[in-house]
Write a structure and sequence with these properties.
The structure holds 2 protein chains of 2 kinds. By secondary structure, chain A is an alpha/beta fold. Helices cover 26% and strands 31% of the residues of chain A. Chain A contains 12 helices and 19 strands. In chain A, helix 9 (229-238) crosses helix 10 (249-257). In chain B, 31% of the residues lie in helices and 21% in strands. In chain B, helix 5 crosses helix 6 (129-138). The chains are: A alpha/beta, B alpha+beta.
Chain lengths: 357, 895
């Protein structure tokens, strides 16, 4: 275990100790406040190109529950912790993940909360080298990426998706547009009594409709939705032709397709304790969130859910679409919003003629 | 939904005396409830028999009844006050049981009182073992296969080992594990006796399974949140109150944690908890992933207080607001001010609770832990790592520095304990103090390991950061100044200098309980009224002093030299108050002074003069005051020689003790054996004992009250029943005592509160001891006389003179008052045998037109129908019977 550092693009240096693979990586620094479910978090494709800091200081306590992994690989660029259990850091190292412990993660959270999301680099190198590396990293949001064209890169969402379609479960068919969809979303769909057919996010609307779906779910994924022109167009073409559902990035894509705007949140919502009010009621769901962007409200859709923390849009609804900014599949986190999958299944059962039209 | 406007007045029932299983957590809960309900405009009527509570100070409720918590008394209060509603969920099992009784007796229906915060059916479904099991099974929730037993004839087909759980008892009272048929018989017999409905549940023992608890809040909109998950380090089989626990849980994967959460919600919905706090306890087998619901409480509990302090989420306050109709989404998160109360706290630290036991006081007590709670107190440690939090909790219970030995510990915790040993080895090898501090080793531990002084450790380390308990893991800015220390960068700027730091009393234990928390909280209020900022330091999670609403800044830290010096360096206070939190802060006074800490009221000379027996005797001699003859003996032979000269019996005690630890009376040479140096005093057989609390300004003393002990000399003052006014004290004697008090106060140079214990033996007055600090009787006397002693003491500490306080010539109670001690006799055989060593856990208070009437009522409040045979009621001055019972205190409502 060697001395290592995490350096933010503003030059802030956090000393730590390397407990993963030796090396240097860079990405956008973000933090989650969820206390458990670390193995689920790092395998969630929505964390692509991000360096994930755990606000809860003890990570790895219960080992790794392999049955809970959200994809076949670790997606976070790097992992930052206060105290990591040996078994867990060995698991990360075996997967080639650069990870630090002994970092003052509370100070890091505070800095990101106050100054907003920042690029960073971490690993066994001098702070100066890491700082340079952080600045050479593309921004994750489209406007700033455009401002530095020499660093620009395609959206990570299209890297994280499947290459070939596959299907899970039996029942009415739900096509899942994959931009890095979590396994548990597909699993929950199948459990709700539908056949989930996961297809590459780059597919066009006609390809999707050829599968004769009873509904389409636009899945979660990493990056800035505004960068995804193709998928936005696909969703626009699907609107009104099939019941549409969206989760996280999928919700944002539906919002953009409807003509709403998205914007980058100061430091994102990442955790398993975010209260969301169902519009027009006193009902509050404790939700799991992992997003750096949000949809701005507008006339094109009703806001079905609102964050009680900052009032941002957490869900949209209309005649033929229902979307959630948060993660109803949880994993990790509370199950308050699980009935969303039953809603999809119910919509499929009542929507056959509509889908066939 | 907004709050209900059809309710105007609400009756809150407290939990009565502190007992094992029902500590001062309900004072904290009650105080929070009173505060918010009054702020919402409701008239609050409060009944509680415990004088040491903060809630029974007149400021908290519109009408306060210090009365027995029994059906006839509370029914009479209902009849008189006609409250619209009864809120029974904040006074522990006692209040819940009373609510059931009031309802069953038809009292609530007769006076149209609505039960809020709980409904009767829900209470029954949660508390009646059989109903609970049926309810859980109907909801498809796993419960251990169990048998309801109401008679000893039903024991034949029970598999062993088995757990016996009596229905409707607190702290698992009367329960236990049976491994043999005869143990089963004995345990069930005891359980049937303990249960008010003569019912026990016998279930297969899940000994060795892991144990988890979830603290929940629910509202009428159907919202439910988990405030905190708690994991017991001790496996199932050890009462959760006796367990080391940690929050949040550490060893479940998220998948398993969510199984518990889902089951907990189904459980409280099946039971029918409509609003408020509740907790659900689980047993979990990690290999097979089997889960079993053990029990649920449809009310605020000891764990709720712990969860509130561990997370910053004010459960009792919100429970009260939800009971009057609010929903969670309408209420703000106090701590951030910005976000909503309808959320689940996220922690970025670890909270470890350590139990405190006092087995040493109960000779012959079985120190093996079981399903019946034995702990008398607890301490909370907050740290960024498990070792840091655990070691702080260990400091907090003041029971030595040995790491806990817990059979059946989960491998994760085993590894963490091992990491502490490894860190100690590394420290011993490297001498790297900074690394040891970041790991979490306390200064005292480092000093011991390196064989150096604490001052040197301090010199070789940096300073800790002050981190906020913010309920959101740093995601939002905390508005509420509730802090702990760790070796990380601190949150934000430190505050300006000049506050007053009040040191709390730490963990509850026999001899140092809630009465000192009363003094600290009262002082915080008084100093704030005087325009000062107040900082509190304490690590007892049950208390009002560790409620962040009590002061400007709260440090949840053990009251030790290290942590207090860290607070002082950060705060640069005007002064530190050591005299209101009992022996824990007082014992550190000299060490603080040596480090240059400004002690408010300059208490050190008086402390030293009173505690050093030689100096104290010399002072009494100078002042012409009498004390029992005494000597310091270092050997048995010396002690026996002294006793032979003086005559037996003699009193033997080690110096510097709390609550008489190690004190005994020797009636002959065969009983006089010394293990080390001890003080040997002449024992004044049959003497009458008096407790005198005095306010002093350095130049004079003012007697607040003279309390007469019901028991004769030989019973620890904390265990004696007391009455005021003292029936045996004639006007002449009173004048003598006043003169004595004044001389002693001046002689000691005491400032603030001084407690003097006197003995009246063969018509002569002896000074037994003087304590220049708040005593156990301060809350009782403040309530009996209506003189806010602590408030006055605060002004005196700040330099005021007695003249400036405008005190009356004499403080005369308008009625007679009595207090009686409560013993843990249901836990420890012989606990109620009063002796020289203190054994009571709490006390009750009651009033009457005469001292006899007051004493009788105190006995009633203590649950003793008749006076004990061994005690003569204090009938010695019948004229006291004419005490003006027509007089009514404005503050205290009286029946």
């Amino acid at each position: 275990m060697q001395a290592a550092f995490l350096v933010l693009e503003d030059g802030t240096v956090f000393p730590g100790r390397s407990v993963g693979t030796p090396g240097v990586v860079a990405g956008e620094a973000c933090f989650t406040t969820a206390p458990a479910g670390y193995e689920q978090a790092v395998t969630d494709p929505s964390y692509a190109r991000q360096v994930l800091a755990f606000a809860y200081p003890l990570v790895g306590n219960y080992g790794v529950d392999e049955s809970l992994l959200e994809s076949g690989r670790v997606w976070t660029e790097g992992v930052v912790m206060r105290r990591a259990r040996l078994e867990w850091s060995a698991w990360l190292a075996a997967r080639g993940v650069v990870a630090l412990e002994e970092v003052d993660t509370r100070a890091l959270v505070r800095r990101l909360r106050e100054d907003g999301a920042m690029r960073c680099a971490l690993g066994i190198a001098t702070p100066a080298e890491l700082h340079e590396r952080a600045l050479a990293q593309p921004h994750l949001d489209w406007p700033r990426m455009q401002a530095e064209p020499e660093l620009a890169s395609p959206s990570p969402a299209l890297e994280a998706c499947v290459r070939e379609p596959f299907s899970v479960g039996a029942g009415p068919r739900v096509v899942v547009l994959d931009y890095g969809c979590k396994r548990s979303i597909v699993g929950r769909l199948a459990e709700s009594g539908v056949e989930a057919v996961v297809v590459p996010g780059a597919w066009e609307a006609e390809q999707v409709l050829e599968l004769d779906p009873a509904a389409v779910l636009v899945g979660n994924g990493p990056g800035d939705p505004a960068q995804l022109d193709g998928p936005i167009e696909t969703v626009r073409e699907l609107l009104g032709r099939v019941p549409l559902f969206g989760i996280c990035l999928g919700h944002q894509l539906v919002g953009l397709a409807l003509g709403l705007e998205t914007f980058k949140l100061p430091f994102g919502h990442r955790g398993a304790n975010h209260p969301v009010r169902v519009t027009g009621s006193s009902r509050v769901l404790v939700t799991v969130q992992n997003h750096g962007f949000a949809v701005a409200p507008g006339d094109a859709a009703e806001v079905s859910h609102v964050s009680l923390n900052d009032g941002t849009v957490e869900g949209l609804s209309g005649d033929d679409f229902t979307t959630l900014q948060f993660h109803p599949e949880a994993a990790p986190g509370p199950h308050d919003a699980l009935p969303f999958f039953d809603e999809i299944a119910a919509a499929c059962r009542s929507a056959r003629t509509y889908a066939a039209s | 939904m907004p709050k209900r406007t059809d309710l105007r007045s609400i009756l809150i029932v407290g939990s009565g005396p502190i007992r094992i299983g029902q500590g001062c957590e309900f004072d904290y809960a009650g105080v929070q409830a009173c505060r918010v309900l009054r702020a919402e405009g409701y008239r609050v009527v409060l009944v509680n028999s415990n004088p040491a509570t903060i809630m029974t100070d007149p400021e908290w409720a519109d009408a306060t009844y210090l009365e027995p918590l029994d059906l006839p008394t509370v029914a009479a209060i209902v009849e008189r006050e006609r409250p619209d509603a009864l809120l029974p969920t904040l006074g522990g099992q006692t209040a819940l049981n009373l609510a059931v009784e009031l309802s069953e007796a038809g009292v609530l229906a007769e006076y149209g009182v609505e039960l809020i915060g709980a409904d009767l059916e829900a209470i029954r479904r949660a508390e009646d073992r059989q109903l609970f099991r049926e309810t859980m099974q109907a909801a498809g929730l796993p419960v251990p296969a169990s048998v309801i037993v109401t008679s000893l004839d039903q024991l034949d087909e029970i598999d062993l080992p088995a757990v016996v759980r009596p229905s409707f008892t607190l702290g698992g009272g009367g329960g236990g594990i049976a491994r043999t048929q005869s143990e089963l018989h004995r345990q069930v017999e005891l359980g049937l006796r303990s249960s008010p409905i003569s019912q026990v549940l016998v279930e297969p023992s899940l000994e060795g399974w892991q144990e988890f608890e979830l603290e929940l809040m629910a509202d009428t909109a159907g919202n439910c949140v988990v405030v905190c998950s708690i994991e017991n380090l001790d496996p199932v089989g050890v009462h959760t109150g006796d367990s080391w626990t940690v929050a949040p849980q550490q060893t479940l994967s998220d998948g398993e944690l969510q199984r518990l959460r889902d089951a907990a919600f189904r459980c409280i919905r099946a039971v029918g908890v409509a609003t408020g706090g509740a907790n659900v306890q689980f047993a979990y087998e990690p290999e097979t992933r089997e889960l079993a619901l053990i029990e649920m409480n449809p009310r605020v509990s000891r764990s709720s207080a712990l969860a509130s302090k561990a997370t910053g989420f004010p459960i009792a306050k919100l429970a009260a607001l939800l009971a009057v109709g609010y929903t969670l989404d309408e209420l703000p998160n106090d701590i951030t001010g910005a976000s909503s109360a309808a959320f689940e706290p996220a922690l970025d630290y670890v909270a470890v609770k350590a139990p405190r036991f006092d087995f040493g006081r109960f000779p012959g007590a079985d120190a093996k832990l079981g399903t019946e709670m034995r702990a008398v107190g607890e301490a909370l440690g907050l740290g960024r790592t498990f070792p840091e939090a655990l070691l702080k909790a260990l400091e907090g219970i003041e029971a030595g520095d040995a790491l806990p030995v817990i059979p059946g510990l989960h491998p994760y915790f085993d590894a963490e304990l091992e990491s502490i040993r490894r860190a100690e080895d590394e420290l011993a090898a490297s001498g790297d103090v900074a690394a040891a501090k970041r790991f979490g080793l306390p200064d005292a531990r480092i000093a011991r390991l390196l064989g150096i002084g604490e001052r040197e450790v301090r010199g070789r380390r940096g300073r800790p950061g002050r981190l906020a308990v913010d309920s959101c893991a740093g995601e939002f800015e905390a508005r509420t100044p509730y802090y702990y220390f760790s070796y990380e960068a601190g949150d934000g700027d430190t505050t300006g200098a000049g506050a007053i730091v009040v040191l709390g009393s730490g963990t509850n234990r026999i001899g140092q309980g809630i009465e000192f928390d009363y003094c600290c909280v009262r002082a915080a209020q008084a100093f704030r009224r005087l325009g000062h900022e107040v900082v509190l330091v304490n690590s007892n999670p049950e208390t009002v002093s560790t409620d962040y609403d009590t002061c400007e800044r709260l440090y949840l830290e053990p009251v030790t030299l290290e942590r207090v010096l860290d607070v002082v360096e950060l705060e640069r206070p005007l002064g530190v108050v050591v005299s209101l939190g009992g022996q824990t802060p007082l014992g550190l006074a000299a060490a603080f002074a040596a480090e240059g800490v400004p002690l408010l009221g300059d208490p050190l000379p008086a402390i030293e003069a009173a505690e050093n027996r030689g100096r104290f005797a010399a002072l009494l001699g100078e002042l012409g005051l009498r004390a029992p003859e005494w000597t310091i003996a270092t050997t048995t032979a010396e002690a026996r020689a002294f006793a032979a000269e003086l005559g037996y019996p003699v009193l033997v005690r080690p110096s510097y003790v709390i609550g008489g630890t190690g004190m005994r009376v020797a009636r002959g040479p065969e009983e006089l054996e010394l293990a080390g140096p001890a003080l040997v005093d002449r024992f004044l057989e049959g003497a009458l004992e008096l407790d005198v609390d005095i306010l002093c300004d350095g130049n004079d003393g003012w007697v607040a009250a003279i309390l007469e002990h019901v028991e004769r000399a030989g019973v620890h003052s904390g265990d004696s029943a007391c009455v005021v006014p003292a029936p045996s004290v004639s006007p002449a004697l009173e004048a003598e005592i006043r003169a004595l008090a004044s001389r002693l106060a001046v002689g000691l140079g005491a400032r603030g509160l001084l407690n003097v214990q006197l003995a009246l033996h063969e018509s002569r007055l002896y000074v037994l001891e003087a304590n220049p600090r708040a005593s156990r009787t301060v809350p009782f006397i403040s309530k009996a006389t209506g003189v806010p002693l602590v408030d006055h003491a605060c002004r005196l500490l700040l330099g005021a003179s007695l003249d400036e306080l405008g005190l009356p010539e004499r403080a005369l109670p308008e009625r007679a008052w009595a207090k009686e001690a409560i013993f843990p006799s249901e836990r420890f055989a012989g606990a109620a045998d009063r002796g020289i060593e203190m054994r009571s856990t709490g006390e009750v208070m009651a009033s009457g037109a005469t001292v006899v009437a007051a004493y009788r009522r105190a006995l009633q409040a203590a649950g003793r129908a008749r006076p004990r045979a061994d005690v003569e009621p204090p009938l010695r001055r019948e004229e006291e019977a004419s005490l003006a019972d027509a007089l009514r205190s404005e503050a205290m409502a009286l029946l």
